[in-house]
Amino acid sequence: MADDAGMPLTLSTLFSQPQLRQLAALALAAAGLASAAMAAAPFEDSIAQRTLACTACHGAQGRAGPDGYYPRLAGKPAAYLYSQLLNFRDGRRHYGLMTQLVEPLSDAYLMEIARYFSALDLPYPPPAAATASASALQRGRQLVLQGDADRRVPACVSCHGQAMTGVLPAVPGLLGLPRDYLNAQLGAWKTGQRRAHAPDCMKQVVDRLSLDDLNAVAGWLAAQPLPASSQPAAAGPVPAPGAITLSCAGVAKVGP
Predict the structure, then answer these.
(1) Is 242 inside any structural domain?
(2) What is the mean pLDDT, run by run of 10 residues, along the chain of 256 residues?
């Protein structure tokens, strides 16, 4: 994200030095909890036990961290999770703790992690109450469900599924994610801190929208409940004649 003067927002601009020290302490504590959990559990050499290092931040069974910045892993499409692990390892996404965790791991092991979390079918908690203004929520709803033809922005649901729970094999759901996390990821695409293989359609979308638009999308999505079935759709909606479409790169293949 950027401030009103157009300067990129970094951790040092968003937080004071005492707050940064507190965040660092929390990260170290999370790492310590993971180590303690692995030490306390009987050794079984299972993928569930080996991924305790992931769930220390992402919540038990990958249900999401409690602070709003560590997203849910459980039930996401395996190809999406695998591609994001590769992106962290190979420098297309940037977060030091994640990079250090996955850097020494092979493609096959990252695939095993992705499949494990993808197979977890767990209930979602209710969404947090909306805090945005009525006009911002209306704008967010419009962009998610209808897009913005004047700016050549397709509706979010055209890629992420009409129910916004994702689309197999590799498109993630948009519901069940905290507003802070959604804002952080949209902002990371806006500033180039998060990237995908070209053509990067998410980069095209965020570049055509203002920061207020991105905040509106995040605020509306974070306040929406999950449908009865939170599973990703088998296929995306068929584009209507004349609908705005973007070309997106493929993702790494999972499975034979």
Answers:
(1) yes
(2) 45 48 53 55 84 94 90 95 95 91 96 97 92 96 97 95 94 94 94 90 96 97 94 90 84 47
Backbone dihedral angles phi then psi of residue 191, each to the nearest 5 degrees: -95, 0
Q: Are 226 and 232 in contact (CB under 8 A)?
A: no
Query: What is the phi/psi pair of residue 103, to 5°?
Result: -55, -40
| Omega within 30 of 0 (cis) for the link into 227 | no
How far apart, in Å, are the Cα atoms of 32 and each of 20, 142, 185?
18, 43, 26
Residues spanned by the domain of 68? 49-122
Pair (232, 171) in one structural domain: yes
Q: Is 160 exposed, middle or buried (0-12, 13-18, 19+ CB in 10 A)?
A: buried
> Model-level pTM?
0.78
Regarding whether 161 and 72 lie in a shared domain, the answer is no
Strand (E) or helix (H) holding 249: none
What tokens does 51 get? 């991924």
Structural domains of the chain, count:
2
Query: 162 with 234, same domain?
Result: yes
Residues 94 and 167 in one domain: no
How far is the C-alpha of 58 from the C-alpha of 61, rounded, in Å? 8
Residue 166: which region, alpha, beta or left (left: phi > 0; alpha: psi -120 to 50)? left
| CA pair distance 116, 105, nearest whole angstrom | 15
